[in-house]
Design brief:
The protein has helices at 46-60, 79-98, 101-104, 107-114, 119-126, 134-143, 146-155, and strands spanning 3-13, 21-30, 39-45. With 156 residues, it is an alpha+beta fold. The chain has a three-stranded antiparallel beta sheet, sandwiched between helices. It is a peripheral membrane protein. Belongs to the sorting nexin family.
Amino acid sequence: EVTTVRVQDPRVQNEGSWNSYVDYKIFLHTNSKAFTAKTSCVRRRYREFVWLKRQLQKNAGLVPVPELPGKSTFFVGSTDEFIEKRRQGLQQFLEKVVQNVVLLSDSRLHLFLQSQLSVPEIEACVQGQGPQTVTEAILHYAMSNCGWAQEEESRS
């Protein structure tokens, strides 16, 4: 079984405003039975990764969850350099997470990687309070071609 996860295409959102942030494209390609959709493409920001790590840690018990790159308020060097370092760190984090059987069993991880649901929507879905089951949410996103539309858009 092969699972390839790539964190790429960092984009600054709301540039120039006090609430600007960077989000990253997460591209997943797999033949693993653990995943509902075999390919997906979503955009996530750093604080969503922080949330995911916390949730994985809560549910994994004694299984160590990989570290995230640090959140720097004081960074020496160029912004591009910082964003690239963070991108690499986020990719390493996800690569380690998807190789871990215990972490792979967490449905929050699957919704994080394979749907564009927000953090509160993921929580609601996992707790059975959303309009769809976890599988339905992932399939709905996969069928809507959002992932492919974003993929194509970034190529052109």
